[in-house]
Write a structure and sequence with these properties.
single chain, mainly alpha, Growth Hormone, Chain: A, 20 helices, about 75% helix, disordered N terminus, disordered C terminus, receptor, transmembrane helix, membrane, cell membrane
Length: about 500
């Protein structure tokens, strides 16, 4: 039985018989959430008393796809600039005359910047809206890219680090948006797929970051020629970032005129004076299932960040002179992960099995990491391509699962807030794992470094299994379907509930 069917039966058990349905019984059903159930409420809020919302008009707009793909392009540009140094770290170490840790910090600065800035950016997202966040973020991305165009000189490492820092600020305005954008614009039967596509934008940038720098910046001895190639790469990324920034200003919108789902319509009905940002944060911190997800998500994605940052070092250690193939292996990881993300998103929209899918993908990420760790030193590059692709399929495919599961566990809290806390955890573990694995690789080799990551993936798997699944957003949509039951309706008509009202006559495409 799917998670959706379980929800339907759970509600029908509470209703009893459709003919006995009354406002009193409906209030009893809607009262199954109590703020003390998960210990996630510190004070009375708009969620503390059951409310009966009328069925509201919903509509899907064709331009939702333009919003999604424009955001994905912006995220792609930023993701590319994250890895354009580390994938050819040996070249930049020689060019700037720096050590490996300094190069690693050009990637880890993205993680470090995120941690102190995420809370104020989440506050801005709740108070200023998604459009302002996306515009400001794309502006930072553009400015940082142009700063780096002047740093193709061996004496300009400090300035290139500053440019990378400005680009890292843009990341804070990106990572929490996919689930928010999906909820604001997309119907319930496509919301997880939309979130997956939003995540794919950043993954596409990482894929390009693995592939393009080794091609644009060959490992040549002549420093003047090397500076010329580096400058070309910086100007290309700056031109793309500028074009996307202009498009964002012209095209990107906050939200559609009519909500896409009944759950989103209910969220819109909450008055601003009923919502407290700090109270929302405190409720989330006391939501035990969500906090388990925060830590387990951070462990998984932190491992991915460490692998991505240190990939060049791991490949070069066993396959000297294979900088280009190191980039191709990274590309394989991300492309496979993009496929995994999309498949997982579609699967969630079809089945609504959030916890089951998340747990299975987590276990397979651990298995993939173990296989990758023990086959890296076999001396066959094709084996590395295969095992890295399998690892990427599950580890990167996990990203949208975490976002969507978090939205279900925390509804009706802001999607940006829950996503922001997930990403903050990922950045913290990303820094810890990158530094620790780098030190382990230097002292004991790549196998020990990868086993180190496997241990924490095992911990994350156990924590995922302990999460209590409470699909609150699905229940909100189910509530509105229950309201449409008349005395002549059959029990089976409610049990055959669809997860959204997208098919209703008034919800036509425009």
């Amino acid at each position: 039985m799917s998670s959706q069917d379980e929800l339907s039966h759970e509600w029908m058990d509470s209703l009893g018989n459709a003919e006995d349905f009354s406002p009193r019984k409906e209030t009893e059903v809607l009262g199954d959430y109590k703020p003390g159930d998960d210990g996630d409420a510190l004070e009375p809020s708009f969620r503390d008393s059951p409310q009966l919302f009328p069925l509201m008009e919903t509509k899907l707009y064709k331009r939702r796809w333009a919003m999604l793909f424009l955001f994905s392009a912006y995220s792609t540009s930023n993701g590319f600039m994250w890895l354009q140094y580390s994938i050819i770290s040996n070249i930049f170490m020689r060019f700037y005359g720096i050590d490996s840790l300094a190069i690693d910090w050009l990637s880890m600065i993205y993680c470090l910047t995120y941690i102190p800035l995420i809370l104020p950016v989440m506050w801005l997202l709740d108070n200023r809206g998604m459009r302002d966040i996306v515009v400001v973020g794309s502006a930072f991305n553009c400015v940082g890219a142009w700063i780096k165009t002047s740093t193709a000189d061996p004496d300009m490492f400090a300035m290139t680090f500053f440019g990378q820092f400005v680009c890292s600020v843009a990341t804070v305005y990106i990572l929490g948006i996919p689930s928010r954008l999906a909820s604001l614009w997309f119907g319930q039967q496509e919301v997880s797929t939309a979130c997956s596509i939003g995540v794919l934008g950043n993954q596409m940038g990482i894929a390009i970051g693995f592939l393009v720098p080794p091609i644009l910046v060959p490992n040549v001895d002549d420093m003047a020629e090397l500076a010329y190639h580096i400058r070309i790469m910086f100007y290309i990324s700056a031109g793309v970032a500028t074009f996307i920034f202009v498009l964002v200003i012209i095209v990107f919108q906050e939200r559609p005129e009519l909500p896409p789902t009944q759950a989103q319509a209910q969220s819109r009905s909450i008055q601003p004076d009923e919502y407290s940002y700090m109270a929302s944060i405190l409720r989330l911190l006391r939501n035990k299932p969500f906090m388990l997800l925060v830590v387990s998500y951070g462990l998984n994605v932190g491992c991915f960040y460490a692998i991505s940052t240190l990939l060049n070092r791991m490949i070069i250690e066993h396959y000297p002179g294979e900088e280009v193939n190191a980039g191709r292996i990274g590309l394989t990881i991300v492309i496979a992960g993009m496929a995994g993300s999309l498949i997982c998103g579609i699967w969630l929209d079809k089945t609504k099995t959030y916890k089951q899918t998340t747990l299975v993908v987590y276990i397979l990420s651990l298995v993939g990491m173990l296989i990758y760790a023990f086959t890296l030193n076999l001396g066959h590059l094709w084996v590395v391509f295969v095992t890295a692709g399998a690892l990427g399929f599950f580890m990167t495919g996990y990203l949208p699962l975490g976002f969507e599961f978090a939205v279900e566990l925390t509804y009706p809290e802001s999607e940006g807030t829950s996503s922001g806390l997930l990403n903050c955890s990922a950045q913290i573990f990303g820094i810890i794992f990158t530094i620790s694995q780098g030190k382990i690789i230097d002292k004991w080799g790549t196998l020990a470094g990868n086993i180190f990551l496997c241990f924490f993936l095992l911990i994350g798997t156990v924590m995922t299994g302990l999460i209590k699944s409470d699909l609150r957003r699905q229940k909100a949509n189910l509530q509105t379907e229950v309201q449409t039951v008349s005395p002549t309706d059959s029990i089976s008509s409610v049990q055959d509930y669809g997860a959204t009202s997208c098919g209703r006559p008034w919800q036509q495409q425009s």
